[in-house]
Amino acid sequence: MFSKLSKSAYILFFAVLLVAVGIFFFTHGEEEYVTVSESLPVHYNGEQFAGSESCIACHQEIYQSHIQTAHYNTSAVATAETLKGVFDGTAHTVELIDGKAQILQEGEDFFQTIQSKTSDKLLDKSRLDLVVGSGVKGQSYLSFNGDSLYQLQVSYFTLIDDFINSPGYPNYKFSRAVTDNCVKCHVTFAKNENPKGISNVYDRKSFMLGIDCERCHGPLKKHVDFRTGNVSQSAMDPVIRIDSLSRQMQMDNCVQCHSGLRAIQIKDNPFSFVVGDQLDKYAKNYNFGRPQAELDVHGNQYGLLKSSECFKNSEALSCTTCHNPHKKQRGDYDHFNSKCMECHAAPQDLHNNSGLDNANLTDCISCHMPLFPSQTMKVRLDENAEETSVDIRTHLIGIYIEQVLQNGKE
Ligand code: HEC
Ligand code: HEC
Ligand code: HEC
Ligand code: HEC
Ligand code: HEC
Ligand code: HEC
Ligand code: HEC
Fold this sequence. Notes:
Layout: H1 7-28, H2 60-66, E1 75-77, E2 92-96, E3 99-106, E4 109-115, E5 122-127, E6 130-132, E7 138-145, E8 148-157, E9 162-165, E10 176-177, H3 180-183, E11 187-192, E12 202-209, H4 213-217, H5 221-227, H6 247-255, E13 264-265, E14 283-284, H7 301-306, H8 309-312, H9 319-322, H10 333-343, H11 347-350, H12 364-368, E15 371-380, E16 387-393, H13 401-409
Antiparallel strand pairs: 1-6, 2-3, 3-4, 4-5, 6-7, 7-8, 8-9, 8-10, 11-12, 13-14, 15-16
This protein binds heme C (7 copies).
Residues 52, 55, 59, 62-63, 66, 71, 211, 213, 215-217, 242-243, 253, 320, 325-326 line the site of one heme C.
């Protein structure tokens, strides 16, 4: 349909659309609060995004399964559907150093208020505009003040199904500005006012929430146009075939978000990298070259996997050996264990001298990729309590005798 339209028809189409959107904003301007718009942005590389709904016509199965994933749901406009936690009409209180924060619902909207500890005077009231985190471990809230974006002091922690003080953010007076170095791993695209992405002022219309198809495949309006009415011809299709890239380039696509913070931006800004680029030319970590033992299990699956014997001794192992990027696979241990067996047949032979019962060898990952407490996702529930932390599965595949012995005792 689109490919048959001439350029001028396009311009007319968008002009009509703009007028329609304008009318919407004009008539609803006062009472309707529009967090981010539905119009689609243009990437820094000049390519227009198409949006995942435009993929349904030809990739329906992938789309249906993708919208179930933690990636797709990792950021959204805050609504009763996207917010975890119990909203039962009462306000939930979280103590800060210099105030008392509350999360409350008013009609369709959600707010964080902060009152003085001594006088109950209202010090701040911010709307929960965006929610970050699908809720596997927790959720944080972002709020616009004009076009400036901030993180709120309260978060939700799934492990205890309750609201907590966001890690490392104990007071209200120092608001935490949100820049590209925060949103880069949780949205598909957002255009910062600053070309390096270091301000917290955004073009709200440019937000594409969730990690959608085009975060991993690059902006694909041209592919949609090319394929519309042309499903058989393959030459000239601008889409990148990921399985034809080198292992490093395939991994770089995941590694941009799964190798620690990568806060040193060498080139352009955090959204400039697209699949097929070399990530090391764009960004690196402060802890680059740090010994493997110190790698935190949170967020650096790449650093850990790369240090594993499995990775060092095989040409093919990559993130997608075990993870189908379009599928929600959390908890599917049969799937993951079957991946180990593809390279390590006959597990009995591997454990001949271990004294382990052969019947108990099926859950490979429980012993060779055990759970460790995250150093970054933890909370102290009250002053004297021990820290409660989220368990993360290490990607340093190896032999963990102590863990095995301990699990055996339990
Ligand atoms: C009008 C049909 C159509 C639409 C719409 C469409 N595609 Fe495609 N796409 C195709 C066809 C046909 C192929 C080629 C399949 C093949 O060669 O096996 C393809 C190939 C691809 C590939 C490469 C597959 C490979 O072999 O590596 C990706 C990635 C892709 N599409 C993503 C998308 C995304 C993301 C969208 C939405 C933004 C989209 N497509 C919209 C028809 C479409
Ligand atoms: C370098 C990429 C990266 C950056 C930057 C980043 N995150 Fe994350 N975040 C992740 C990854 C990856 C996970 C999943 C945790 C894991 O490694 O298992 C995650 C998990 C989370 C979760 C829990 C999600 C869930 O469903 O359990 C929240 C909440 C969160 N991040 C908030 C933030 C906020 C707020 C910021 C900005 C201050 C931020 N993140 C910056 C990559 C990042
Ligand atoms: C988290 C990153 C990620 C997201 C999000 C993602 N993909 Fe993919 N996609 C990949 C990777 C990686 C491959 C290559 C898989 C492989 O080599 O095993 C791939 C392969 C494909 C292929 C070709 C192979 C196949 O399975 O048919 C198509 C078509 C495709 N993706 C379409 C989509 C569409 C449509 C969406 C959104 C509905 C989407 N992808 C979302 C990472 C992603
Ligand atoms: C734009 C950043 C980004 C990219 C690119 C990305 N991820 Fe993620 N990934 C995240 C974030 C953020 C989360 C946490 C989502 C949540 O729960 O809110 C996550 C979660 C995951 C999870 C846990 C899913 C679950 O069900 O809890 C896996 C596995 C994963 N990613 C693998 C991959 C693989 C493999 C690739 C490459 C094909 C990839 N990711 C690309 C940011 C990214
Ligand atoms: C792509 C193939 C491949 C996959 C998949 C794979 N491995 Fe490996 N693994 C290897 C290779 C190659 C070695 C090097 C030693 C060898 O040749 O046996 C290795 C070594 C190991 C070692 C010895 C580690 C050490 O430090 O001495 C363990 C344990 C192991 N793998 C367990 C696993 C488990 C568990 C899984 C599934 C989560 C897995 N592997 C998946 C190829 C693989
Ligand atoms: C040898 C298999 C294997 C490979 C290769 C692998 N993973 Fe995983 N990954 C797993 C298993 C097993 C889990 C635990 C799944 C679960 O708990 O349901 C996991 C979980 C995750 C999670 C969620 C972490 C958590 O504890 O919540 C993320 C994120 C992730 N993987 C990203 C990656 C990335 C990025 C790569 C490539 C650098 C990668 N994985 C390579 C097997 C693998
Ligand atoms: C109950 C815990 C446990 C389970 C389950 C388990 N392993 Fe192991 N595995 C070990 C221990 C402990 C060792 C070290 C034994 C030794 O050195 O004799 C080991 C050793 C290995 C080695 C290294 C052998 C060598 O000689 O280098 C590989 C590879 C391996 N396991 C793969 C697997 C695979 C694949 C599975 C799943 C089919 C699996 N393991 C299940 C505990 C376990």
